[in-house]
Amino acid sequence: xxxxxxxxxxxxxxxxxxxxxxxLREVNIRDYSREYIEDTASVMTPGDxxxxxxxxxxxxxxxxxxxxxxxxxxxYWDIADEYSLFTIFVLPGYIGRGVGRRIMETLEADEFxxxxxxxxxxxxxxxxxxxRKFGYTYKNGVAEPDEEGLIRLEKFRK
Length: 158
Hints:
Elements: E1 3-7, H1 13-26, H2 34-42, H3 46-55, E2 57-63, E3 66-76, E4 79-90, H4 99-107, H5 111-114, E5 118-123, H6 128-132, E6 137-138, E7 151-156
Parallel strand pairs: 4-5
Antiparallel strand pairs: 1-2, 2-3, 3-4, 5-7, 6-7
Helix pairs in contact: 1-2, 1-3
């Protein structure tokens, strides 16, 4: 693999949308109902990805020229020193090969992360064990999915 990471460009939107939807359908389906996956997939359109990239620092990981992962960091409800990680997905077939780690390293080196006192991840059940390896803990000690089907994780910075 020849991995590099860069900021998202509008021309990436279609490919990133397909990557996310494929990952939801092939990987996250292990932990969620088909209805939940399709509801989530329906809002991961190229237009939604472009909008998301407009208010976050959105990154893509490439293996040569092929986009194989993505992730973003953005504001947490307009609180000056709190941010959230969003839209972290790795193409099936690349999971377990260091792509997710590269995304996390990039997000945790981003200027938003560096000025945060707290970073939250609205994590899927599927992704939760991965984020825990990076030191994220259950927000308020709650390890169960919320009404959105997500587990809220957080990390405090000194």
